[in-house]
Amino acid sequence: GAVVSQHPSRVICKSGTSVKIECRSLDFQATTMFWYRQFPKQSLMLMATSNEGSKATYEQGVEKDKFLINHASLTLSTLTVTSAHPEDSSFYICSALGGGNFNTDTQYFGPGTRLTVL
Amino acid sequence: QQPVQSPQAVILREGEDAVINCSSSKALYSVHWYRQKHGEAPIFLMILLKGGEQKGHDKISASFNEKKQQSSLYLTASQLSYSGTYFCGTEIPGTYKYIFGTGTRLKVLA
Fold first, then answer.
1. Residue to substitute from A107, A113, A116, interface B, most B β-carbons within 10 A
2. Per-residue pLDDT tens for B78-93?
3. Interatomic CA distance for residues A4 and A25, integer angstroms
């Protein structure tokens, strides 16, 4: 099936530092990727939509200057958490909208990145 | 607005059946079902695109009642591997964006 990878899987950083998370579609091209945040025992909340070659669109309440998204190619989107603080600690999950031989109605999810800010 | 799932949590013995409901206050144009294991990404189970549609594979099936703005997921003869949190998701029409439901934690005991 469609494979989406994320790197790193876990990251621990000090407060005030920036962290970059990569999301790659491995066997298909994805013009659209999504970034979600999930707090413990809660649902996935959409943060932003990442479109290749254009600016990301952010959901209400998500600070675009804090969560920088770059969709530089058809297989890679990155999320940078700038000046991270403990309240940014969460599970960040990306997804890619299917393309090529895969269902274009379906989002395929990466394995997630656990961010812990000390 | 986020779809509400019920029950919030359920514990089953292996071989028992379960039903998870997903209700929305707004019209549902499609429903996706996912299962998520702790610390892992959600795994796609199925998508229902039309009102009245029913789908299934193995012993997991789902129905979509468009008029009632709800969907149900049916787990038959549950297995230990069914344990996890189940989410319904619905697409905001024309955007490919999903809104996920509140989630149902399911645990199957031996």
1. A107
2. 999 999 999 999 988 8
3. 4
